[in-house]
């Protein structure tokens, strides 16, 4: 009798695993954003993070979820399908409901897709979209999300910064599926596209027939448009930041000119934004943008803990400040005590033209 | 209309934190604690809404051990009408806080919940979104401006997002989380600190609110971030350019 039970048990187990692997493509779902027909760079970082969850074996294939409507959505789906060798499936939720990044319909969408796909992990970038939506989705799924992850130790153990990055916390997820993460895109570099053409992933439509129609509790009104000329602060190779010492928005042109000369993006401290010199989307810091460029140059920036939180992972940090005791000099690789109103023009004059 | 504000006691933002040698956490013994700056902003916004005549009562809620009462008293001194202390000595993750808030909502029935967007200790930025999800209320996170229309029962929120400012309009009841530029919080004046001593504080435990504190996260360790190599001071722009080109090779 014991033998029969053992055999039955073994058969059950095998069919369980078999049905598990055939019922869905991937074990990880990436909730991605798209723009102008392509998957956004932050979301590609999320795909990179997703791919690393399986420890490099093929079993951890990735499904990418895109939503919105129109031809650019379908172009983005094609882009997603060939974006990374680990992507085995692209799910497209085509509906006007998802055109704007409102949390309420998006969190419901993630909930619905999870019910259909039973993913082990759900990942998004921890940009303002991911931060807004993923915790809400986690609540709907009754799990604790782990946000702003900078390192993956194993499939359920993650590292994230706390106390403005002055400490790192390693956290293990012990709950049931799904394990929901948002990742810091600066910690997950998107690999250079290799030339090997791989089979494109399948693209399928999300079945929205059971999508609960919410009674329009939230409405998207407007969005200030970003200057498309400037390189994106989040992934620029060079960032030039100005602090309150710039004194007014007119003077910020110095920062902009230097950024242009070096092909970089413009950043600002909270003080400079509060004073109205520049708009909020330039703020670098604990509660602004996190950047990790090759070169970060800070002019007239004192180096408060909260600002450092946003740029301490930059490869090379340069600081220019009149005050030799400014805390920024403790993190700078190269520090120059001087007047930025003299140093910047001199730099503009002497720097080689960007090739 | 009633507004509920959740406030958290954290290590003061100006303190240089130290990681414990046993890596179990951060040193909190003899360290200055304060109300989370984002929570101060949340409470300030609630008070302004009440002062403009659009709300009748502001209830401040805090959760944690008995020391949290200090923070609650500060909230009452700033102007909250009543306080609620949910007493717990276990670590409370955002999911637990959200569940407790959701169950408090059934008792208090506020039309608006305002929270800080993140606590400066764990930097989670999750609780407001989770409460909104559990309640199925719309959410306006990272708010830099809040305009309430009591008649239309809706609130228009400007949000600080990656590309600039996004404006959304939400039906009440709703959840708002506050960003830094929403307002400048007031200081509690001495007369108000005295008045606060007699404002009522209701006590609950998570069990009384039907919330089981069953953590699905475990802290493995807390460590210091990798230290940067010490830098050098340069004495001229020429030297700087030379080093950036030849040493660092970034230009």
Automatic annotation (TrEMBL), chain A:
UniProt lineage: Eukaryota, Viridiplantae, Streptophyta, Embryophyta, Tracheophyta
Protein family per UniProt: Belongs to the ETF alpha-subunit/FixB family.
Cellular compartments annotated: Mitochondrion matrix
InterPro entries on file: DHS-like_NAD/FAD-binding_dom, ETF_a/b_N, ETF_a/FixB, ETF_alpha_N, ETF_asu_C, ETF_asu_C_CS, Rossmann-like_a/b/a_fold
Residue intervals of the Electron transfer flavoprotein alpha/beta-subunit N-terminal domain: 28-219
Keyword field: Electron transport, FAD, Flavoprotein, Mitochondrion, Transport
A Pfam family matched in the record: ETF
Record function comment: The electron transfer flavoprotein serves as a specific electron acceptor for several dehydrogenases, including five acyl-CoA dehydrogenases, glutaryl-CoA and sarcosine dehydrogenase. It transfers the electrons to the main mitochondrial respiratory chain via ETF-ubiquinone oxidoreductase (ETF dehydrogenase).
Entry-linked SUPFAM superfamilies: Adenine nucleotide alpha hydrolases-like, DHS-like NAD/FAD-binding domain
UniProt-listed PANTHER family: ELECTRON TRANSFER FLAVOPROTEIN ALPHA (PTHR43153), ELECTRON TRANSFER FLAVOPROTEIN SUBUNIT ALPHA, MITOCHONDRIAL (PTHR43153:SF1)
Protein name (Swiss-Prot/TrEMBL): Electron transfer flavoprotein subunit alpha
Organism: Stylosanthes scabra
Cofactors demanded by this protein: FAD
Top-rank taxon: Eukaryota
Subunit structure: Heterodimer of an alpha and a beta subunit.
Cofactor binding annotation: Binds 1 FAD per dimer.
TrEMBL record, chain B:
InterPro entries per UniProt: ET-Flavoprotein_bsu_CS (IPR000049), ETF_a/b_N (IPR014730), ETF_b (IPR012255), ETF_beta_N (IPR033948), Rossmann-like_a/b/a_fold (IPR014729)
One Pfam family matching this protein: ETF
Location within or outside the cell: Mitochondrion matrix
Domain Electron transfer flavoprotein alpha/beta-subunit N-terminal: start-end pairs: 23-213
PROSITE patterns, per database record: ETF_BETA
Keyword Transport: yes
Keywords: Electron transport, Mitochondrion, Transport
Gene3D superfamilies reported in the protein's UniProt record: HUPs (3.40.50.620)
SMART domains per UniProt: ETF
The UniProt record lists the keyword Electron transport: yes
Complexes and interactors: Heterodimer of an alpha and a beta subunit.
Family from the record: Belongs to the ETF beta-subunit/FixA family.
PANTHER family on file: ELECTRON TRANSFER FLAVOPROTEIN BETA-SUBUNIT, ELECTRON TRANSFER FLAVOPROTEIN SUBUNIT BETA
Function: The electron transfer flavoprotein serves as a specific electron acceptor for several dehydrogenases, including five acyl-CoA dehydrogenases, glutaryl-CoA and sarcosine dehydrogenase. It transfers the electrons to the main mitochondrial respiratory chain via ETF-ubiquinone oxidoreductase (ETF dehydrogenase).
Descriptive protein name: Electron transfer flavoprotein subunit beta
Species of the source: Stylosanthes scabra
The organism's taxonomic lineage, starting at the top: Eukaryota, Viridiplantae, Streptophyta, Embryophyta, Tracheophyta
């Amino acid at each position: 009798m014991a033998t029969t039970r053992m055999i039955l048990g073994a058969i059950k187990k095998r069919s369980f695993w078999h049905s598990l692997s055939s019922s869905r493509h991937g074990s990880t779902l990436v909730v991605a954003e798209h723009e102008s027909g392509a998957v956004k760079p932050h979301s590609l970082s999320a795909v990179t993070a997703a791919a690393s969850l399986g420890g490099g074996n093929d079993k951890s294939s990735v499904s990418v979820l895109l939503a919105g409507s129109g031809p650019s959505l379908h172009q983005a789906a094609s882009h997603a399908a060939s974006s990374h060798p680990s992507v085995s499936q692209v799910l497209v939720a085509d509906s006007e409901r998802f055109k704007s990044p409102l949390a309420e319909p998006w969190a419901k969408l993630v909930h619905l897709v999870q019910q259909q796909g039973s993913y082990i992990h759900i990942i998004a970038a921890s940009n303002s979209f991911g931060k807004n939506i993923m915790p809400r989705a986690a609540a709907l799924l009754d799990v604790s999300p782990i946000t702003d992850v900078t390192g993956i130790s194993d499939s359920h153990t993650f590292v994230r910064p706390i106390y403005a990055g002055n400490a790192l916390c390693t956290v293990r997820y012990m709950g049931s599926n799904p394990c929901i993460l948002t990742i810091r895109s600066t910690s997950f570099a998107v690999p250079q596209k290799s030339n090997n053409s791989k089979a494109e992933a399948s693209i399928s439509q999300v079945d929205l027939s059971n999508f609960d129609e919410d009674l329009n509790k939230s409405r998207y009104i407007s969005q200030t448009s970003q200057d498309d000329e400037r390189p994106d602060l989040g992934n620029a190779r060079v960032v030039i930041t100005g602090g309150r010492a710039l004194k007014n928005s007119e003077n910020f042109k110095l920062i902009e000119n230097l950024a242009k000369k070096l092909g970089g993006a413009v950043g600002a401290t909270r003080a400079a934004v509060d004073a109205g010199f520049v708009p909020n989307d330039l703020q670098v810091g604990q509660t602004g943008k996190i950047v990790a460029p090759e070169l970060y140059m800070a002019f007239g920036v004192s180096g408060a803990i909260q600002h450092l939180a946003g740029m301490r992972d930059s490869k090379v940090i340069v600081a220019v400040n009149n005050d030799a005791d400014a805390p920024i000099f403790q993190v700078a690789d190269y520090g120059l005590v001087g007047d930025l109103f003299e140093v910047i023009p001199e730099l503009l004059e002497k720097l080689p033209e960007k090739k | 209309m009633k507004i509920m504000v959740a406030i958290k006691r954290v290590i003061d933002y100006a303190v240089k934190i130290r990681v414990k040698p046993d890596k179990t956490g951060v040193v909190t013994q003899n360290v200055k604690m304060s109300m989370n700056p984002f929570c101060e902003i949340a409470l300030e916004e609630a008070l302004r809404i009440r002062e403009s005549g659009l709300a009748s009562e502001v209830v401040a809620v805090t959760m944690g051990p008995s020391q949290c009462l200090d923070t609650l008293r500060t909230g009452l001194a700033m102007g909250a009408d009543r306080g609620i202390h949910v007493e717990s000595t276990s670590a409370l993750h955002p999911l637990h806080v959200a569940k407790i808030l959701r169950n408090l909502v059934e008792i208090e029935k506020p039309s608006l919940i305002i929270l800080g967007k993140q606590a400066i200790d764990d930097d989670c930025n999750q609780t407001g979104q989770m409460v909104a999800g559990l309640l199925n209320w719309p959410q306006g996170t990272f708010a830099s401006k809040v305009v309430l229309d009591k008649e239309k029962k809706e609130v228009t929120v400007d949000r600080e997002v990656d590309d600039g400012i996004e404006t959304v309009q939400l039906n009440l009841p709703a959840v708002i989380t506050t960003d830094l530029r929403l307002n400048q919080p007031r200081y509690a004046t001495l007369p108000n600190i005295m008045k606060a001593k007699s404002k009522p504080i209701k006590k609950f435990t998570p069990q009384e609110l039907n919330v089981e504190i069953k953590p699905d996260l475990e802290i493995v360790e807390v460590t210091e971030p990798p230290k940067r190599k010490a830098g050098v001071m340069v004495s001229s722009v020429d030297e700087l350019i030379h080093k950036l080109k030849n040493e660092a090779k970034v230009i």
